[in-house]
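TOKENISE THE FOLD
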Amino acid sequence: MKNQKKHPKKQLEKYSNIFMQLSLVLVLFVVYQLIEHETTRKTFAVTIPETTPDYLLNIDDIPLKQYQKEEKKKTEKIAIKKIIIDEIDVKKNEEHIIKEIFKEDLPKQNNIDINKVLESYIPDDDVIVEDVDFIIIEDAPIYKGCEGLTKTANKKCFIKSIQKFVLQKFNIDLAQDLGLSSGKYKIFAQFVVAKDGNVTGIKIKAPHPKLKKEVNSIIKQLPKFTPGMQRNIPVNVKFTLPISFNVE
């Protein structure tokens, strides 16, 4: 009896099936590794310092960290942690305020004598300053819902209400597209509560144009106030709100 020869075509089909199985195993392994791979994400948090800001300093003189766009992969997104707005303690002295809020921004050689600064802002009996800073105003503007409080309690209520308003209005999704490099940043929002209670003279300093636009939009939405009083005369009151945030 003659031995039957194996058909070459059938032999190739047998090996093709083996190669296909090996390829499927390799593909499954690669997919598994990709799923297990964890991509790094950035965190974004906004805070307002626990100390009262120094409202006497001009916002135009405050240096800010310059914005630098960070190149990132298309698939990478910033993970928003949350916005934290802490209470401001209006009882802390002004000298401590300057050190706490501006210690990273002001040059070390600039020694600020807060007593001299205050003296320059306190008007004589016969003179009413057009714009009075919130920190030295006799009767601070009244935010809706803060009526009937003592002078000190009204200031606390004013600050707390502004903080709550900013927290509710701030668009945290905005940080997704900022492209900021990791680090600490600050925003300063200054505005005037005019004699008629309306908000005017808005000035914003921010490390990114989109942040500046966002905060400016929020300040414009503030409700009308009961105007501040200096010796029972309505005056313009200047208020500065510092906001700090971290990108990690």
Q: What stands out?
A: Confidence is low (pLDDT under 50) at residues 80-87, 91-110, 117-126. The first strand starts at residue 42 and ends at 47. The chain has five helices and seven strands. The two ends are 81 Å apart (CA to CA).
